[in-house]
Design brief:
There is one protein chain. 39% of the residues lie in helices and 21% in strands. It has five helices and seven strands, in the order βαβαββαβαββα. Helix 1 runs parallel beside helix 2, helix 1 crosses helix 5 and helix 3 crosses helix 4. The chain has one domain: Rossmann fold (3-Layer(aba) Sandwich), CATH 3.40.50. The protein has a seven-stranded parallel beta sheet with strand order 4-3-2-1-5-6-7, with helices on both faces. It is α/β, with parallel strands linked by helices. Strand 5, helix 4 and strand 6 form a beta-alpha-beta unit. The two termini are 17 Å apart.
Length: 151
Amino acid sequence: MLIGVIGASSCNAEIAELAEAVGREIGKRGAVLVCGGLGGVMEFASKGAKEAGGLTIGILPGTSKEEANCYIDIPIVTGLGHARNILIAHSSDSLIAISGEHGTLSEIAIGLKLKKTIIGLNTWDIEGIIRAKTAAEAIEKALKISEGRDA
């Protein structure tokens, strides 16, 4: 299962800790983390996944693999800028939105349009996002819904 983690490229310590916990849960559950591959929420989630033995994929906006954070196993260079958000949403079986700004909002909108499961942790208040309070709850809901079970 591919779980997308979406969030801002910069974040405070509280959001960083939450993103790392989400990544750790993804790694522990044997899922693959998909993200934008840069800093902030993406980097901390990737760090958590790597520390738990997980695999990480970074779908990068630019034209160089070197722009990926150091926890990305598979950097995918797109040269698409923000348009790469479409690839993140399409590639993920479910999405977990952590906090976020307008880039995250665009990924949420694309995910909703594609009828993807979107779990929200401290993020935009939009109809269609399934709320969670902890990293473990978010991953459990993402896995259950994506496997066709009720959350």
